[in-house]
Amino acid sequence: MDNEKLSLPQYDIPEDIQNAVAITTLDRLYNWGRRSSVWPLMFGLACCAIEMIAAQASRYDMARFGMEVMRPTPRQADLMLVSGTVTKKMVPALVRLYNQMPEPKYVVAMGACASSGGPFKEGYNVVAGIDKFLPVDVYIPGCPPTPQALIAGMIKLQEKIDKESIKKVSWYNKKNKGQDVNYVPVPILGPDLIDPRRNAEIKSAAAVKATQESAS
Ligand code: SF4
User: Fold this and answer.
1) How far apart are CA 135 and CA 195, in angstroms?
2) Which of 22, 54, 62, 171 has the largest CB neighbor count within 10 A?
3) Is the pTM of this model over 0.90?
4) What is the mean pLDDT of residues 13-23?
5) 114 CA distance to ligand 1 middle (Å)
């Protein structure tokens, strides 16, 4: 869908009334409204955040996408733009903020660090990509990605939103009974980061190790 085109392409609406009349579908109207007002949560983690800030300023002007309103609260945000190195200490806070965002919500991993750990991959204090914990919709490569790359990533996100259907989206599915299907258990930070979703795996590995030690 082109940014401005709400109408279905097969209808030839006279040019002089194109700003006043649209022939469209409910899905297209719904997606058009959301793709044009994605509000990012306002935070930055490291150097990539500087490029994100530059993309918001007058030269690149993310306001053209309806994305200029960076919200200081997760309750009013629908995009988590992870810009920078994700440390183990930061992950519980990020996951908690993600859980506090209402549906529909999206996650963009900006830069090598957020996508894979980047230059700090395998570092003792760094997570090798936020996708180990959160469902990432768009990855933006680069160290750092330029504002243009971030805007290209935002266009990809818009294209993804364009493909959604009001009948299929999880947040309107009555079978979910108001449950947040995207809820992520908050990781626990101790001597290392523990993902509660892997408790069974951790316990069985510990049991195997204990058996080996008692046998030796
Ligand atoms: S990807 Fe590069 S620029 Fe971005 S936070 Fe990591 S080290 Fe900094």
Assistant:
1) 15
2) 62
3) no
4) 86
5) 8
